[in-house]
Amino acid sequence: LFEISQGMKTGNVFNDAIEFVGLLEEEKFKKRIREALKNEKVKGERIERMTVNFLSSRFTEPAFLKEEPFVLKTCGVFIKGAIDRIDRNGKGYAICDYKTGKPSGSYELQMNIYALGCRQVLKLFPVNRLSLFFLADGVEREVKIMEEGALNERLRKITGGIKEMRFPRRKTPACAFCPYENICGEINGGENERM
Fold first, then answer.
1. 95 or 45: whose pLDDT is higher?
2. Which one of 85, 135, 160, 174 is at 20 to 30 Å from 53 when CA atoms are compared?
3. Bridge partners of 87?
């Protein structure tokens, strides 16, 4: 078992609360978040800022779908995910993922997998917009939609490594959030050292 990181806990609390936006009054929404995080090491002003940023955003409007789960089979493996928000966007669909951390990393692969799941599993297409909404600063950032051939090639490389039990350990801040962080270097007899 592993401890859920502070960032994951905060993200989960906000995602759970956001699911009920529209059903909860503004103060009840804030109270729900404060109560869920009262024993955590998240500063009150940070929680307040994220809450205010969300409540003053366009995301308080009803979504076409929220927290929509999918299981996608691609390249011989299954990828399970849940899309935070899907909206109708002209003659297509827009996908948005909420983030409680600071804007960092591209999230391009994650968001394009969501788009693939939207198209192939949920049968919603075309997906013509991908974005991230960073609650900490209230900024929405667009993510590039990859050409499907390039996405499939990237997924083939990743899934090929998974099938061959190759899990190279990367030296990134994201490793701290991974449940396998302590053991990934031990797979394949310790061959996967930090890169």
1. 95
2. 174
3. 94
